[in-house]
Every structure is written in C-alpha cells, then in structure tokens.
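RECORD TYPE: inverse folding
INPUT: structure tokens
STRUCTURE:
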C-alpha cells in the first residue's frame, strides 16, 4: 500500500476509534493517527515555523488530544522522528513539514511504532475492501404469502 494511502487510513481509523471507549488493540494506530492529526494542524498553522505553548495547547484541544496524557507522548514521538523540536517553554518548532507530506510521516510513525500484525492487517483489509467492494445480493423476500 502506498505510504500516503496508509497514512490516510491511519488517520481515518483514529477518528473512528475516538468514538469508542475500549481501543487497546489499536494503540499504535491511535498514536500514529493522533501524531498525524496534530502534525497536520501544526503544518497548517499560518505557515509559522514556531508555535507558542498556548497555540500548541489550542491545537491539541482542536485535535481531540488529551493534553496531560496524550500530548507528551505525541510530542516525544514527533521529536524522535525529527519532525518537531520542543523548547523548554513548551513552544514547538516545525521542521520541514508541509501538509502534503503529513500522511507519509503518519505512515512512517506507525511502521516504526508497531510490530502488531493485527493492526497492520486492519489497515490492509480496509484498503482492500475500499478498492474491491463486494456487491451484496440480498435474498428477495416473498410477499405473496
């Protein structure tokens, strides 16, 4: 599967998982997806290269990211991937990110964070189904009883 396509599916799955309470089987998809959502918002943020802590927190809120539990892991993941730089005062500098390459970065983060074939298969299956939809033929219901 192409990296941009995989990144799009990761973000799609993450948005769906946000509506469910028990999602422990998909933690790597959620981490990569939330990194992608956050990174996308950072990249689209008025073309600025450095964002203040307040703006970073506002972006986290808008992206449905828990600032206390999830944001530190997302920042660490993005910093380890050399996509952002986090200063001592909480501001973030974006390092060479454009909105067009966010999906590729999202896919790469997922690949580097998981060895779980179940999560990989869920993305592959979703992609396969979207490319080859099955026409379901429903049985006719007899109405002449």
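DESIGNED SEQUENCE:
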């Amino acid at each position: 599967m192409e990296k941009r396509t995989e990144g799009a599916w990761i973000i799609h799955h993450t948005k769906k998982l946000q509506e469910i309470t028990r999602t422990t089987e998909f933690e790597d998809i959620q981490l990569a997806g939330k990194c992608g959502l956050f990174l996308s918002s950072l990249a689209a943020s008025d073309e600025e290269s450095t964002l203040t802590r307040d703006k970073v927190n506002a972006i986290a809120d808008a992206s449905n990211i828990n600032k206390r539990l999830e944001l530190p892991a997302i920042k660490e993941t993005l910093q380890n991937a050399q996509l952002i730089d986090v200063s001592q005062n909480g501001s973030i500098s974006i390092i060479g990110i454009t909105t067009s390459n966010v999906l590729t970065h999202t896919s790469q983060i997922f690949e580097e964070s998981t060895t779980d074939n179940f999560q990989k298969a869920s993305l592959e299956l979703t992609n396969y189904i979207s490319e080859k939809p099955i026409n379901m033929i429903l049985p006719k219901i007899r109405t002449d009883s």
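NOTES: The first strand starts at residue 50 and ends at 51.
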